[in-house]
Amino acid sequence: MLRRTFIKTTSAAFLTAVCSRITFANALGGQLINHPDEAWAHTAEGWIKLTGNGTLFKGKGITVELKNKGNAQEVYIQSPETDLKGVRLSWKYNAQKYSKILGDHWERSYGDLGWKGPDEHRPNPWYVMLHDGKQTAGFGVKTGCSTICWWAVKPGSMELTLDTKSGGDGVKLGTRVLHAADIVTTTSGVNENAYATTTRFCKMMCEKPRLPKQPVYGINDWYFAYGNNSQQLIHDTTKIMAEYAVSGNKPFSVIDDGWEQADDFSKHNEKFADMAKMADEVKALGMRPGLWTRPLIARADTAKSRLAPSIKNRDNSNERILDPSIPENIEQIKHNIVLYRSWGYEMVKHDFSSWDIFGRWGSQMTAELTPPGWHFNDKTKTNAEIILNMYTAIRQAADNMYLIGCNTLSHLSAGLFELNRIGDDTSGKEWDRTKKMGVNTLGFRLVQNNTFYAADGDCVGITKYVKWENTQKWLTLLAQSGSPLFISADPAALGQEQKNAVKAAFTHAAKVQPTAEPLDWLDNKTPAKWKLNGQVVTFDWD
User: Fold this and answer.
1) What contacts 505, CB < 8 A, 6 or more positions away?
2) Is the pLDDT reported for residue 69 higher than 90?
3) Domain range for residue 458?
4) Do 97 and 131 share a domain, yes or no?
């Protein structure tokens, strides 16, 4: 048995408040979280307290077992007879000394991230960082887990909830043992600031990210066309923007929503003559073709037995959604992805899956991600398992095509998709929206760039509706952030000044750069002071 030795830090107060109570060093030189003091199970009867000794908890036929392995504490759950909605683990812990807490988001962020004061009612999806003014501690779960997890920081305890629902109801695990999650933790090293600690912690949570072979940059038509695109428009804009391509790393031209035939994403509409020829045209012009899709939309002729159950809010759209727990639907999704590859596309951006599954945007998700009282066709798998199976199927069908997840669960996307949209839509019409969604997103999720995936902060919309002096600031930051750059430029808005700026931006984005660091992120939700390529740059976002 390994002897439990406490971690030494440079802050005695930090040591007392965190390490000596909740973490310990292991023989591998890392650190583990102590075994929980309490465990609870969520069933139709409500939350039930389990009894146990810290590594094994039982009650009502439910078993929760914890095992130390490497740098993680693995959580295993059994519930052979009871429909299980979730498990909660609790550690006695005094968090009152921490004035700043940073959580993540379920999928995209919505301009609402930042270091905030303690709030015991706020769920912190996937991981949470604590800062006392000098040092930083991180608590999280590894990516690719079989449950949807969040942390709650309370005055006298730290809690981790592992949601095991299938739809809005409890999962029917039967006789199988669910490997629910792997818990990891860290504290900042000597002279390591909060940004560096959080970045390193993301690497701990995702040990094998799938990253692009070269930096990704290019164009997307959405923020000036807004769905009113066509084969001719894509050809013309690609031709214009290809002039600024960088030798040795071709940019992408991503065709966004508007190409498909109503509810059938295997067919084009009358605005596009031939999708394979469209891909060839993009290549001939010097760019790499990409395509947007919505995998869970059902065709009008889809059998009702293959549709997802009704959910409040989502039903208001009158859209028919595929149940992702049904193998036939997964095969249809794979068929479409393979089709895009056969057409010659080198990148696929798949969108809307979290909304289509849960009937809520990430900004509407609290501790309940979806309304109660419904379930998938397969009631034996958790939401996380069903989603992960779909993501894995998309990955397999894509083969070597790049994938961008948009409106996808971040922790389940990491390791499978080369890119992930980390924030809600910016805008080609409203500067305030771009400032809110874009800058905040980069400020607090760039720690995931090249640690989880290439973190896509969304497009730079160059249009007549937004002052160029504002757009140029966003373009400068994104182009030099070390993350993917996509420009959505209306040709009518491209004067010589804009063309020069695009050329410079493409030159930056096409090469490997250090990930930008927001230097004032501890105190500013819209970071203004940044380190870009080793230089300190200050932006006036107003």
Assistant:
1) 460, 475, 476, 478, 479, 485, 487
2) yes
3) 217-513
4) yes
